[in-house]
Amino acid sequence: MAEINLSFEEMWEKIMACDRKYDGLFFTAVKTTRIYCRPSCRSKKPKKVNVEFYDDIDTVEKAGFRACKRCQPHIDHSPYIRLVQTVVTFLVNHYKERLVLQNIADYAGVSPFYLDRIFKQETSETPRTYLEKIRVDKAAYLLKSTDCTNLEICYETGFQSPSNFYKAFRCLKQCSPSEYRKLNR
User: Using CB atoms within 10 A of its CB, is residue 8 exposed (0-12), middle (13-18) or buried (19+)?
Assistant: First the structure.
């Protein structure tokens, strides 16, 4: 599987939020307990200094960590999990690009109809809405951590128009990008 382009801070935010969107894309390993988990694990959160992130199970297990008994990151819960992980990795790594379902399906090696159906069955969302959430997550991170303008962040995160950006952001975060920046600085 391809490496995911997220910073340590972004991955830390995902595990603090127990974000299921990133399950299987990276694993959280706790140095003090020698246990690794999914990003969505509901177990007590470790201290940030004790955390390492790994892209795949083989690497984390070779480093001497064992699977969490609560979230069971070593068990695939669906026969389609690899397809979904491949698509989500592609979306996270290519969120800045103008993507249509055909591009995503071509990358995954399946038909657009099949991809849309399976992805929705597994995640309760279409690839398009999932991509929008990834873009809004990235925009929220940039609003907190940079001094870029809202317009710069809009285009940096792959939105094609400011109105689309503001609408999607407000829908998912229940506030405007400017309000979000004020609340999280």
Answer: exposed
